[in-house]
């Protein structure tokens, strides 16, 4: 199907077209995005826009920010990536409660996923807008979804749209949108083959997303990453603030204490997400929301903050799953690079988890040498390495197993890996790639749809 000749009439036709674009095809230029957004009148979206960048914690921070907004009565569009089982996971809406109506225990913080008809309609609109540009104007997989998100959020009249950047910042598709705030989670070594060989290179690229005269909020950063953010802020005449300067969040005690921003002291606000490392993501989201509330003149409501922090869940983050008929349980975590694996190791130690085995593999563009030692430390038991089908980025399972040492064994696929650990009592950690987690969830017939809103 060419964009001009046949627009998709069904979600299945759209999905087939999207797959044909190639999930991992990238072209780091913003000209196609800018031209398409301008054609649709979306270069300056009709709502407040927040862009979340960094290496790890972007999805969690973006989701918590959306939940905080929804609990305060805002309609929040949320764009994240990648997805586990359906592309529809990437574009969602957290529907705001009416003031004072947030007391129903367990009520969802959003209506979640757009319908297949909504997706098909948005795809038709965007592809029709790009058709006059010919093949040179054809959007990549990520670009198309980014513009579709902007279209869906505009059509649904959300109050705040939150976009998780895909890769880098300076040339990321989300950077083509006008942004009112940029939020930075910790920046670490990842995608070095694209963004540059050093942390300074990577941070400089991500910092490039800070808009002229904008507001940027950052979580904890390594000195060289913070220096890159500060330099870009100075050059762009932007305001850069540290989340730790805005407020203090003691997740263990459940206390939110504003420091340089208006708002009440909030007690009894524990974080529902498992893993001690999530406290920093929550603190960054809280700081961004308190500043956003000031901008939008919204009063901070303690009960709304408690609800958002306590009820938000995300799949694939220290998540426990039951393998039917198995002796133990699975603990799946989307740790896919060195910083994330370090956080996973610390979280297991803090929670007293001694994994009986690990199912692990990683993509070819990841720092396997840096990850291998951490994976070996996670367990004294077997390490099962399944084959993973990821065209263009697959790493051979036998090579991974060889690099992990004598306790590692390669198996053909995820089904074989699950069979291999079925009789192992205790906790089996699954980590290394979100695509690995997606295959595990698919094999277990698990739907992440029910896990976003609890």
Automatic annotation (TrEMBL):
Domain of life of the source: Bacteria
Record's keyword terms, sorted: ATP-binding, Ligase, Magnesium, Metal-binding, Nucleotide-binding
One term of GO molecular function: ATP binding
GO cellular component, one term: cytoplasm
Record's keyword annotation contains Glycoprotein: no
Keyword Metal-binding in annotation: yes
PANTHER family: DIHYDROFOLATE SYNTHETASE-RELATED (PTHR11136:SF0), FOLYLPOLYGLUTAMATE SYNTHASE-RELATED (PTHR11136)
Family recorded in the similarity comment: Belongs to the folylpolyglutamate synthase family.
Protein name: Bifunctional folylpolyglutamate synthase/dihydrofolate synthase
